[in-house]
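<given_protein>
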Amino acid sequence: MDRRSANNDFASRRGRGDTPPFEGGDEAAFDPFAPARPPKRRFRAVPMRIILPNLVTLLALCMGLTAIRFAIEAQFEVAVVFVIIAAVLDGLDGRIARALRGATRFGAELDSLADFVDFGVAPALILYFWGLNEFKSLGWFAALVFAIAAALRLARFNVMADEPDRPAWHAHFFTGMPAPAGAIVGLLPIYLSLSILDAPHGRLMVLIYIVYVIAVALLMASRIPHFSGKKIGRIPREYVIVVMFGAVACLLLLATFPMEMLIFLSIAYLASIPFAIRKFKAHEVDDAAKLKALGAAPDK
């Protein structure tokens, strides 16, 4: 039976009432020989500009987990390098998301979970396996305090990011030491031990290191302001060559003398905290003066 005769037979049966009526009365809408429609997609396509930042975040997470592995194998210098790589990737994923306009709520949550592993769990375990275990429970207590402080710092950062009424100048400061900086600065005892300084590793020094690790943890959990580099604007033209030379020199020194450069950067960062506090308070004084001037201004 060809298609025309089939249609005629179907129409005759339709006239005798042998076939059920069409829903809605639109008989022409049904064609038994029409090609089947492709099934609807169940999943919406995700653009690459959203996937790419999350891939960088997952790569940073892999670096943190690999650092834990090398710490278990007592390869502490390699473990430190992987934490540094994770910190670099953590700085890149947010910038890539903003540049590609691929920032999402999912990416923000994934970034926080990765940061907790990379800059809370990994440094704590590296420090414990490296030397804090000399005091067993006390060393483990210091490691726990460090990891918990990193978790609290990240949770507070997520909450404060949703506050709409923060002054614009707050973007130039972090509330509490950022988790990546806390991880890099917290590993300072290892840098001292693995550098040319060859710091002693006796029980007294380990006790000092425990106190230092707890102090860094308190800086992360505190509300002490720290400088933020996220809002660095354009560099004046006359300083471009100087900045480029300085950046290249730092990278070369970091590749040649990694532990020594990390000691210098850690101490420099700690030294910047008083200046950040002073600058933050100056902004608060300016805001208070402006509010007082507005309150004293006569109504027009």
